[in-house]
Amino acid sequence: MKVAYIITSSDLVGGAQVHVRDLAARLITEGHSAHVLVGGEGPFTRQLKSRGIPFTTIPTLVRSISLKNDVLAIQELRRVLSRLEPDLVSTHSSKAGWLGRVAAKSLGMPVIFTAHGWAFTDGVPEHRRRFYVLAEKLAAKLGDRIITVSRYDRKLALAYGVAPTSKLVVIHNGMPDVPSRNMARPDVDPPQIIMVARFVEQKDHQSLLVALAQLQHLPWTLELVGDGPLRDEMEGAAKALGIRDRVSFVGAVDDVARHLAASQIFVLTSRWEGFPRSILEAMRAGLPVVASDVGGVSESVVDGVTGFLVPRRDVTAVKERLERLLLDPKLRRVMGRRARERFEQEFTFDRMFERTMSVYRDVLAERRSR
């Protein structure tokens, strides 16, 4: 099987990039062919190169909307796809999903879109939601399947009439396992709290910092992994709250698993999400999770069992759940063990890969029958 993957950004390595990278690598390992078409070059293309995954850069394939760039990107995508002649095109992220489906459809190629969280999900500003709903409805007509990474996103697509039931399939994200040296010890004191997320409006670091400012009487440190436009603002907020000396801003790292292994509690205070891979990484490491109950988060975190779910932007709830975990090493250990068990049962990479391959085969079989 020959699969061409299309994704917009190479300047960061987020959940969608990791998803594409790992699927392409496994396809190649199993004797199939994979090629990634990506906008520009950066950390993501360096990872593809280091893993021997072939790729082609499309400079005009960018996140921002530009009629000129978008038309040029479609033309270039058509040219490269015509040369590659893949059996199937798999598109990822909203912009690549739109342009990639137009290009593939115009060439008569079967095409799938994976929605890594809808751009019209709850929590996104209303004016943006209306635009993205219309765009996704139009793009859905061009594809053979839409994979959603959570049941929540499938329900959302049906509620907004984006696509019929027959086109939508749920495949939860899955992660490759890590060596035993990357297992955390949640009951170690004093505990380190960790959040892995870009510094953008969506992730709401502010709520976490304000909650921790109310827990200065307890021993803890916080490590914030990631980069982004709001980093300087959050450093200023930590200083203003009087906790800057207890917060480490470590930036983007290639060894997230090592940082998780050195921590005792994982937090993700997002305003909106699809199905965050960072939570799965924390569960894989055996960490209890405190996360906003948004998007498909409740499909990974079992409230009161593997961690705690809190309402979005609810500083008091974040503070109270963290306080419980900070004061109770045994609770951290038990929740962390249950989180690891749930990862092993539900969210391994092998499980995700097999279900994804099944969708690929179904789409190709349907095309042959027609």
Can you characterise this structure?
With 370 residues, this protein is α/β, with parallel strands linked by helices. The chain has two domains: 195 residues, Glycogen Phosphorylase B (Rossmann fold); 167 residues, Glycogen Phosphorylase B (Rossmann fold). 44% of the residues lie in helices and 17% in strands. The chain has a seven-stranded parallel beta sheet with strand order 3-2-1-4-5-6-7, with helices on both faces. Strands 10-9-8-11-12-13 form a six-stranded parallel beta sheet, sandwiched between helices. α6 links the parallel β6 and β7. α10 crosses α12. The model has no long low-confidence stretch (mean pLDDT 94).
Q: Indicate the proportion of strand residues.
A: 15-25%
Structural class: alpha/beta
Mean pLDDT: 94
Roughly how many Å is the radius of gyration? 21 Å
Largest sheet: 7 strands, parallel
CATH class of the largest domain: Alpha Beta
Intertermini distance: 19 Å
